[in-house]
Amino acid sequence: MSPFSKSLTWSGRRIFAACVRHHSSLTTELIENMDKKATWDRFYTENSSRTPTFENFDWFFGFNAVRDMIMPLLQTMSHPDAVLQVLDMGCGTSALGPSIYRHSPLPVRVTCADISPVAVRLMQEHVQAQAVWPHHPSSQLEFVELDCTQLDECFGLSSLDLIVDKGTTDALLRCKEGRGKAGLVLKQCLKVLRSSGSLLQFSDEDPDARLLWLETEAQDPGVLAADVGVQEVGELQGVCYYCYQVTPQPVVSK
Ligand SMILES: C[S@@+](CC[C@H](N)C(=O)[O-])C[C@H]1O[C@@H](n2cnc3c(N)ncnc32)[C@H](O)[C@@H]1O
């Protein structure tokens, strides 16, 4: 069994189990209001109360499924003596950000950001209790409460090397009021990424729909330009997962 299918099967079971366990009103709230802070606060509060000790909750799949996409890309971004700046956008209580911190042989500063203060607090308490050690002694890990439609209030322009987004844009795109926010988030990512940097969106949305959306939202003549690509992550129970890579391009003035 590949690392992908192993972790995906496990996460898939957990997501299914969590949805079944959750009160149906929460499931409805989640589906209709995935762009709302209060919905996610409730989700993480109820999820954490179900287990006596903290457990990471990973949407779609865990780090091992995408390790071979993230780690080689980080290697290509290394600049001498510099700490690579990584953002896990809408981190929830996923192990993705902490895993990058633990496994990167290059020094990284991983910021895990989420709109839900409940998720952020759970992760802060978890890493304090567990003492997660980095592969590189100069690496750093932090958790911040942040609305990712306002990334530029927290990060400088062209300051980040890599942004990972596992399920966050998907959550926004799936609810009526979230679509505008998803577009804003993408534009903010392109502002705060270095020219050599990339945004990786992990998603179950079909390339026919997502590529069109990305290409439309990431282009604004004279203002914004990006290259967009896709590769398959793998399949679970008939659902195919994808990695969309968005890379800022120089803007040609009109
Ligand atoms: C589908 S979950 C994915 C969580 C995590 N990335 C994972 O893989 O398990 C979507 C996450 O996005 C967060 N979120 C939603 N809107 C957000 C926003 N505007 N800014 C930051 N985080 C947001 C939610 O709180 C939630 O944790």
UniProtKB/TrEMBL annotation:
<keyword id="KW-0809">Transit peptide</keyword>
<keyword id="KW-0489">Methyltransferase</keyword>
<dbReference type="GO" id="GO:0032259">
    <property type="term" value="P:methylation"/>
</dbReference>
<feature type="domain" description="Methyltransferase">
    <location>
        <begin position="86"/>
        <end position="168"/>
    </location>
</feature>
<dbReference type="InterPro" id="IPR041698">
    <property type="entry name" value="Methyltransf_25"/>
</dbReference>
<dbReference type="InterPro" id="IPR051419">
    <property type="entry name" value="Lys/N-term_MeTrsfase_sf"/>
</dbReference>
<comment type="function">
    <text>Protein-lysine methyltransferase that selectively trimethylates citrate synthase (CS) in mitochondria. Seems to conduct trimethylation in a highly distributive manner rather than in a processive manner, and thus introduces a single methyl group per binding event.</text>
</comment>
<keyword id="KW-0808">Transferase</keyword>
<dbReference type="GO" id="GO:0008168">
    <property type="term" value="F:methyltransferase activity"/>
</dbReference>
<dbReference type="GO" id="GO:0005739">
    <property type="term" value="C:mitochondrion"/>
</dbReference>
<dbReference type="Pfam" id="PF13649">
    <property type="entry name" value="Methyltransf_25"/>
</dbReference>
<comment type="similarity">
    <text>Belongs to the methyltransferase superfamily.</text>
</comment>
<keyword id="KW-0949">S-adenosyl-L-methionine</keyword>
<protein>
    <recommendedName>
        <fullName>Citrate synthase-lysine N-methyltransferase CSKMT, mitochondrial</fullName>
    </recommendedName>
</protein>
<dbReference type="InterPro" id="IPR029063">
    <property type="entry name" value="SAM-dependent_MTases_sf"/>
</dbReference>
<keyword id="KW-0496">Mitochondrion</keyword>
